[in-house]
Structures are given as structure tokens and as C-alpha cells.
Amino acid sequence: xxxxxxxxxxxxxxxxxxxxxxxxxxxxxxxxxxxxxxxxxxxxxxxxxxxxxxxxxxxxxxxxxxxxxxxxxxxxxxxxxxxxxxxxxxxxxxxxxxxxxxxxxxxxxxxxxxxxxxxxxxxxxxxxxxxxxxxxxxxxxxxxxxxxxxxxxxxxxxxxxxxxxx
Length: 166
Prior knowledge:
By secondary structure, this protein is an alpha/beta fold. Helices cover about 40% and strands about 20% of the residues. The radius of gyration is 17 Å and the shape is globular.
């Protein structure tokens, strides 16, 4: 039984997104309130073309699950590392999903095409930043060796679920 955890961000909501589904969309002031309350587990701020955007995880009750449940969340290697520090050892299991560079770039461009004001410079900035953030050195440092290839989503999900059942 997997329960999804929704992260928070100060970036503007995109066309087709729903607050509370992809992210909880907040502003800088709300982030500061959550930081002051001590509920922020981890945060990352990116200097984007549109200004600084922060993505963060809050201990807001989403991690309170029954004994037979687990949480599933999407994050970066940096967020994974910080979550491992926050929770006791062995509680975090990485599921590293990999997409070939060309497909990843095309997906990002296609998503951006659907925006009222596409920002292709930000797509390029993020693509290049991801090369560094998800480097082989970082994967090795965090002990992530298993990779799931997301070229066929159905097969990828089946493989992940099989491994999680183990």
C-alpha cells in the first residue's frame, strides 16, 4: 500500500496542474512560516530564469501512515539525501527512474509548449542543471545502483512494483 506525499513549491502553477496534486503551490511568505514552525524537512532553491523557486518537503502529517502502508514521493538526489538524514536509517528506499537524455528533453519541451507563455530558456537551464544534480558521482555517493528505465511506462511501473513487493 503506497500513499503519495505531495511536496511544496514556490514556483508558479503551470497550465494543467492542480494545487495539492502535483505540488502544494505556496509563496515565499508561507515557506518562511513553515520554516519558522520547524516543519520543513528539506528544501532546495533554484535560481531560475524567472527568479528563485524553492521546492520543499514538510512534515505535515502526510508521513503518518498505518503499519502496513508506505509513502511514495518524487524528489531529487539532494532531497533524498536530506530525507535520509531526517528519518531513521533504513526507512528510505530510493527508486531511481532514468530517462534517456533526448526523451527527457523532448518531454520537457512538449510540456512547456502547453503553457500560455512557454519559457524554453528555463527548460534549457533545468536540463543542464539536471546533468550535474543527477551525475554518476552523486548516484554513487548515495549508493544508488538500481535504475528503472522509463522508456515504456507500463513496463517500468511493473518492474518497480515487483521490486517493492520484495
